Amino acid sequence: MSLYMRCKQALLDALKSVYMIAPMLLAVIGLVGLFQVIVTPEMLHSLFNGTPLHDTLVGTAIGGVSVGQPFLSYIIGGELLKGDISLYAVTAFILAWVTLGVIQLPLELTLFGARFTVIRNFLSFIFALIISWATVITLETLL
Amino acid sequence: MSIKKKGKPKNRSGWVMLSITIILYVVIAFLEPSLAISSLNKSLGILKTILPILLIVLLIMALLGTFINSKSIVKHLGEGSGVRGWIISLAGGVLSHGSTYIWYPILSELRNAGAREGLIVAFFYARAIKLPWIPVMIGYFGFTFTLLLSIYILLGAWVQGIIANKIIKKRKF
Fold first, then answer.
1. Which among A20, B11, B15, B100 would be 20 to 30 A from B141, CA to CA?
2. What is the ipTM of this complex?
3. A115·B168 Cβ contact <8 A
4. Which residues from A are below 8 Å from B128, CB to CB?
5. What would the pLDDT profile of A25-38 be if each residue is shown by its tens digit?
6. CA–CA separation, A88 vs A131, rounded Å?
7. Domain limits, chain A
8. Is there a contact between B149 and A135 if contact means CB atoms under 8 Å apart?
9. Which residue from A9, A33, A142 is facing B42, i.e. has the nearest CB?
């Protein structure tokens, strides 16, 4: 097959793939918009209680259901830190924000299947806890 | 590298999800119109942001489809890809930009073409390092914190990839 034909076929295949995921993509974008308006930073702050383990779990859970540009998690995380929320919780929060995607689960399920999606998200959840603790403990040891 | 879905029933979950989302918006519009309008504006803003990136994704998919066949994917990211596969996967994750969901089609195609499960998992996790936003993170949390977190994310991505390779059932191609 000539390069032109291969290129044309590949472009058609790519367009078909994008067309196939378009409805789910639009749905996810619609839900992301809703979440960004409904879940405010004040609502997030009220869920922490000062216990590092509890706050780390809450941070991971909230980060996992939150959506938006990563810098939003840094801003909210920075504000939470100023409000005496532990660095463990804030680290888990900003990590889960980018690695977990509850709202994107339907799209991931559609393209990768249930087994892959469940295992990947479970690992991301566990590692948000592990990495946040490892980061803060190392930081405290160094400084 | 195109996906051939011979005999596979049509997946309508996207349309179902889109219908549910539209119904949700309609219900909210009746209960609290301002909330629905704000959400819609946010969504349109996101759409406007990701459309150019989606075009780049489309182009990458077409280039992959033209120049890379399943055999080369298996060679670089499949069984026996070794250290090179990990480096490609982790670097790709760090360098990729835009929302995760716009990378799903490419990753799904790579996976269907024979890429190892662990490398896809590692790619996903390495995306936690957002190069363009590193200065913002340093501004809020300091250089040492940002450096440590980035190192642990890369390590975590690699370990998760190894775990995923062991526990996710091997698919037949």
1. B100
2. 0.78
3. yes
4. 95, 98-99
5. 788 788 878 877 88
6. 9
7. 3-142
8. yes
9. A33
